[in-house]
Amino acid sequence: MRCRDERHSRKKSKTSNCGHRPFRGTCRGNRPPVTAIAAETSSPTGAVALQTEDATAAKEKAYAAMQEALKNLEAAKVAASPEKLAEIDDDIAAFQEIYDMVVAEAAKRREPLPAMQADVDAAQAKYDEAHNRTSGLQAELNKAIDDGASNETIKQLRGEIMSAERREKSCEDDLHRCQRRLESQEKRVQYFESEAEEAKAHIDEDVAKRDALLGDLEKAQAAYDDACKAYEEAKAAADKATSPEIAKPTETVPPSGSAQPAEATPPVGSPATGKDALPSSTKQANTSSGKQADTTAGKLANTGDTAPSAIALVAVAAAGLGITATATRRIKNSK
Questions:
Q1: What's the CA gap between 25 and 29, in Å, rounded?
Q2: pLDDT tens digits, one per residue of 70-98
Q3: Which of 70, 111, 182, 261 lies at a 20 to 30 A Cα distance from 164?
Q4: Looking at residue 286, what DSSP letter applies?
C-alpha cells in the first residue's frame, strides 16, 4: 500500500513539474514577441541597402544625363565654331557693303525725281494749251463754214488749225519724253531700293543664324553645367549612402514596454542552465511564490530592462501560482 502511495506521489510530482500549464506558458514566454520578429524582418540593413540602390541608380541616371548634355554641347560648339561664325560674319559684311552701296545709289537716283516731275507737269501744261488751241480753231472753222464765211477766211482758219496741230504734236512729244525720263528714273530708284531690301534680308537672316547658334551654344553650356551639378549631388548622395557609417546599421533602443528577444532571460525550467531547472523534489516544490517572483524579477533586472514587459510579468505570476498549487496538492496528498 505504501509503495503504491509513493508511486502515485511520484506520478503526481512528475505531472505537476512537467505537464502543468504554467510551465508550458513559461516556455511560450521564451518565444520572441511579434514586434521583435517584425523588427528583425524590417531591419535597418534592408532599408540601407534599398537606399544605397536608389542612390546608385540616381547617380547612374545623372551621369547619363551629363553625358547627353556633353554630347549636345559638343555639337553646339561645332555648329558655332569660330570658323563658322567668321564665315557668317564675312557674309554679313559683304551684304552690308552691298546694302550701303545700293541705298546710296537709290538716294542718288531719287534726287532728280522732283525736278523731272516738274518737267512732266510743265510739258503737260503746254500740251493742254496746244490741244485747247487746236480745238478752239477747229470750232471757229466749223462756225465759219456754217455762217457761210468767205473761202479766204476758211482757208486761213484751216492753216491756223494745221499749225496748232503741229504745236500740239510737239508738246505731246515733249510730254511723253519727260514722262519716259521720269518713269525710267523711278524704275532705277525702285531697282536700287529692291537691291537694298534683298541685301537687308540677307543681313537679317545671317544675323539671326549667328544669334541662334550662339544662343544654342549658351543653352547647351547652361544645360551641361546643370547636369554636372546634378551629377555631383547624386554622386555625393551615393557616396554617403555607401559610406561605412551608413552601411553599418546603428543600434536602436527598443521602446518602453517592448520585449528584447535577443537578451530575454531563460524561463524557469529552461535547459539553458542547470541553475534555473524546475525543482523536482518536494522540498524545492514548496518554495514560496514570493521568493520565486523575486528571483525572476532579479534576473529581468540583470538583462538591463528598466521596465519588465507584460509577457515577462505574466510569466512570473504564472510560475508563482503553479508552484503554490503544486505545494498545496502535495500537502493534501501527504495527509
A1: 6
A2: 999 999 999 999 999 999 999 999 999 99
A3: 182
A4: T
